[in-house]
Amino acid sequence: MSKILVTGGLGFIGSHAVVELVNAGYEPVIVDDLSNSQLAILDQITKIIGYKPAFHQLDLSVEADVNSLALAEPDITGVIHFAAFKAVGESVGHPLKYYRNNFYSLINLLNAYYAKPVNLVFSSSCTVYGQPDVLPVTEDAPVKPAQSPYGNTKQVAEEILKDMIFSGGSRYKVVSLRYFNPVGAHHSALIGELPIGVPQNLVPFITQSAIGKRGNITVHGDDYNTPDGSCIRDYIHVVDLAKAHVAALRLMEKESFTGYDMFNLGTGTGSSVLEVIHAFERSTGVKLNYQIGPRRPGDVEQVWGDVTKSTQKLGWKAELGIDEMMSSAWEWEKYIETNPF
Predict the structure, then answer these.
(1) What are phi and psi of 124, to 5 degrees?
(2) Where in the chain is the domain with CATH 3.40.50.720?
(3) What's the CATH fold of domain 202-232+269-305+322-338?
(4) Helices 12-23 and 40-49, interaxial angle, to 10°?
(5) Cα–Cα distances in Å, from 308 out to 162, 176, 234, 244, 269?
(6) Which fold has domain 3-184+236-266+310-314?
(7) Minimal CA–CA distance to 231: which of 181, 285, 195, 178?
């Protein structure tokens, strides 16, 4: 059974990836520093998969600790690298914090397993595209100047990985997965998105508002050049997203795959903020209170992905729609209301 190191494996996407790795016959090894996650999620994962996976609590930006990890886990054949700071607004205020953590962790990890044949899946982002010139955006679209230090860390990390591969010195294979907007939760309602403080993303704010933790939802702008005036994003169910990481590992296990590639992960369809609100009301039967507010600086008007390459080369396609995203997110919100962490 192949051992896969999952960094940030107790986070939102990481925890779902751990479950899908087990479903696909892999043995996950979780690494997390618990800076933006809860140790209790390890018990939640255990309830789903039936055993407690190996777990190492450490900071990947500390080189000595990562080297010790590589000695403790020498049989790793794949790495899924989720671990990174990810709040756009915070990155603007604290850029050095983001550059230190997101770059040091990646470089330390790459160095630690450099001599081994390892398949690495990198957690990237559609933020590399900015506001695309053409929609839907393909992987060949130009990478625009980053709008935040967080976005810049994703762009530069992709360059680091490509430079490493093209230098020819390592035994790595690498796939970068450019996520659009992950939402939803596992069908068991045992794991899901667990934001610390006020949610920065739309869907957890919706669910927290619906359950009474937050006030009215503010729709930031209704005068954009979109059908209903609100911003459009490509929302993807987190379980579909997790399955794509398994598909990326399978692709790299083929002898025909060499070097580096990148893929869009989305549904290929955009949904506006108002459409997401209405989908939540439709799928849950819960009425939301929302108001229209001013535009937010830096918001991209509309972006959704062309997923043709992912379908054809990765052999993966999103299966769950916006209603399943909203209803599963609501079931998770209700679970943590009665089972707080």
Answers:
(1) -105, -160
(2) 3-184+236-266+310-314
(3) UDP-galactose 4-epimerase; domain 1 (3.90.25)
(4) 20
(5) 22, 16, 14, 14, 12
(6) Rossmann fold (3.40.50)
(7) 181
Structure tokens at 278: 């209405």
- Tell me which of 98, 113, 150, 224 is the catalytic residue: 150
235 is a catalytic site residue: no
Q: How many residues does the chain have?
A: 341
Determine the residue type at 335. Y
Enter the pTM of the model: 0.97
Confidence of residue 189 (pLDDT cuts 50, 70, 90): very high
Q: What is the pLDDT of residues 270-328, one digit of tens each?
A: 999 999 999 999 999 999 999 999 998 878 899 999 999 999 999 999 999 999 999 99
Respond yes or no on whether the N-terminal peptide bond of residue 117 is cis (omega within 30° of 0): no
